[in-house]
Amino acid sequence: MSPIQYIAEKDLISLLEKRDRRAFNYLYDNYSDALYGVVLRIVSYRQYADEVIQNVFVNIWDNIPQFDPKKGRLYTWMINIARHAAIDYIKSKAVQNEQKNQSLPEIVNNTENHQFFVKEHEKKSDYIGIEDVIKGLKPEWRLLIQMAYYEGYTQQEIADRLVLPLGTVKTRIRAALLQLKVILNEYR
């Protein structure tokens, strides 16, 4: 079987629902870097991010029949799967205990590796213009999107950290996402 060169989103979804492995390879080849960048920003360590990203693609493969194109784009759905998987991973007891038990030099070395790797992925994510799109938001909305989608905080955690009512955080995140949708539609 020859690899797929380009495929429209609706056709990709259809092929994935039919369990077409070439479509899955296409999905991995075209989206893994962006999803890995999201996971790495939340998880912070390559060894953990590698494990999480494998689970993300298994979840995508297993749950593609539940994807509803009426509710959003495939990319957004996959980003949410990656984000939730990363958050679940860092909140797991095993990971929290392992991080507590690391020696200081290990943490320093991992942080240096993390900074290099994040810079490389920022270049790739900037290729699709996400950084520029987010910069188009109001500063307070940009902060909320950064905390929720790049740092992995829940809405309640954001409310606690920023000392804002939970309802305000939810409303502002929703407004920011709606504004992002407007901005992204201008790029089409």
Question: Can you offer a commentary on this structure?
Answer:
- This protein is an all-alpha fold.
- The chain folds into two domains: 7-127, Rna Polymerase Sigma Factor, Chain: A (Orthogonal Bundle), CATH 1.10.1740.10; 129-188, Winged helix-like DNA-binding domain superfamily/Winged helix DNA-binding domain (Arc Repressor Mutant, subunit A, Orthogonal Bundle), CATH 1.10.10.
- It has helices at residues 9-17, 21-43, 46-63, 74-91, 93-100, 104-127, 130-135, 139-150, 155-162, 166-187.
- The longest helix has 24 residues, at 104-127.
- It is globular and about 50 Å long.
- 21% of the residues are buried.
- Mean pLDDT is 77; it is low at 103-128.
The class by helix and strand makeup works out as mainly alpha
DSSP helix count?
A: 10
User: Which oligomeric form is depicted?
Assistant: single chain
Question: What is the CATH C level class of the largest domain, in words?
Answer: Mainly Alpha
CATH fold assignment of the largest domain: Rna Polymerase Sigma Factor, Chain: A
Q: What is the CA–CA distance across the termini?
A: 32 Å
Give the mean pLDDT: 77
CATH superfamily of the largest domain: RNA polymerase sigma factor, region 2, helix turn helix motif
Low-confidence spans: pLDDT under 50, at least 5 residues? Answer: 103-128
Strand content: under 5%
Number of domains: 2
Question: Into which percent range does the helicity of residues fall?
Answer: over 70%
Summarize the main sheet.
Answer: none
* SSE pattern: HHHHHHHHHH
Index terms:
188 residues; mainly alpha; Rna Polymerase Sigma Factor, Chain: A; Arc Repressor Mutant, subunit A; 2 domains; 10 helices
